[in-house]
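quick q for whoever's on today - can somebody do inverse folding on this one?? i tried earlier but teh output was garbage lol. tokens:
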């Protein structure tokens, strides 16, 4: 596969030996789409077992139309992504156009009005919604209409579920926080984005995402949120997931300013084979978390 010519690059691939293309009809396909990257996962629903993980980046992408071209080329070159008979296909969108609406106040026909409080909706965007059972809320978000149409053409008969990265992180981390008694701050370091979540007794107190332009932005936003939530910089635990290494300069820089920094672990609702040992436990948390939303 000549990824350089197609303007995408495969960063990581893990494939469980139990993966069987003849059993795709029993599997759940996860597709996590950002503007500059893509993660793919496959889960065997019968065992809640992660069977495949792939991570791609798009180093030269500059426009939404180019994103569709690259996705089309990537899926064409892939052994089975164009297969149309998955049990379920879950699509998560990574963008900053989202809002959470209390379940009791949500009206399906008012989706666009909710989102307009937080974001400008382009002419070529649609507004979708996904429930967050743990927070008794609904995440309303925008998706590119050409992208949505391309996916429907790709999987015309597939059972497709659309969701948003913020909804996935909120659902997964509030589930994680249910078993913790302290008031930790949860951080997800994505490429180009920082997500910060605070929970108490399993209830969501705070969620926001921040665009990152330089490393100092990470510390600045974490400190800002700690202060706004009246959490101690010295005593509060900060739990990290995402694209940050355990011995990286970024982690060492975090540790200079925040004393109690630990790395999060994989979610307990999925099983992983030994081949996933080469992936650090705190990586790909948003991909794994897609399994929690809209479970069958």
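ok took a stab at it. sequence:
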């Amino acid at each position: 596969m000549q990824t350089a010519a197609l303007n995408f690059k495969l960063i990581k691939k893990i494939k469980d030996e139990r993966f069987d293309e003849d059993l795709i009809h029993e599997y759940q396909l996860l597709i996590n789409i950002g503007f500059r990257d893509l993660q793919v996962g496959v889960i065997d629903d019968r065992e809640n077992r992660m069977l495949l993980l792939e991570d791609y980046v798009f180093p030269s992408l500059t426009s939404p139309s180019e994103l569709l071209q690259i996705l089309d080329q990537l899926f064409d070159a892939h052994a089975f992504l164009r297969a149309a008979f998955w049990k379920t296909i879950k699509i998560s969108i990574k963008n900053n156009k989202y809002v959470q609406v209390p379940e009791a106040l949500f009206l399906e026909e008012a989706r666009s009005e909710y989102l307009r409080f937080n974001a400008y909706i382009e002419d070529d965007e649609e507004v979708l919604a996904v429930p967050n059972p743990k927070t008794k809320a609904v995440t309303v978000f925008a998706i590119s209409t050409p992208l949505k149409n391309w996916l429907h053409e790709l999987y015309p008969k597939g059972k497709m579920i659309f969701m948003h990265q913020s909804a996935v992180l909120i659902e997964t981390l509030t589930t994680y926080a249910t078993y913790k008694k302290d008031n930790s701050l949860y951080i997800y370091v994505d490429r180009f984005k920082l997500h910060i979540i605070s929970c108490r007794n399993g209830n969501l107190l705070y969620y926001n995402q921040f665009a990152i332009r330089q490393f100092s932005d990470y510390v600045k936003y974490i400190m800002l949120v700690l202060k706004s939530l009246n959490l101690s910089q010295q005593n509060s635990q900060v739990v990290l997931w995402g694209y940050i290494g355990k011995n990286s300069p970024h982690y060492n820089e975090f540790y200079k300013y925040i004393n109690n920094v630990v790395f999060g672990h994989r979610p307990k609702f999925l099983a992983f084979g030994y081949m996933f040992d080469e992936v650090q436990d705190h990586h790909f948390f948003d991909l794994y978390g897609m399994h929690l939303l809209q479970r069958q």
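fwiw The longest strand covers residues 49-57. also The chain is about 25% helix and 30% strand. so keep that in mind when u check it
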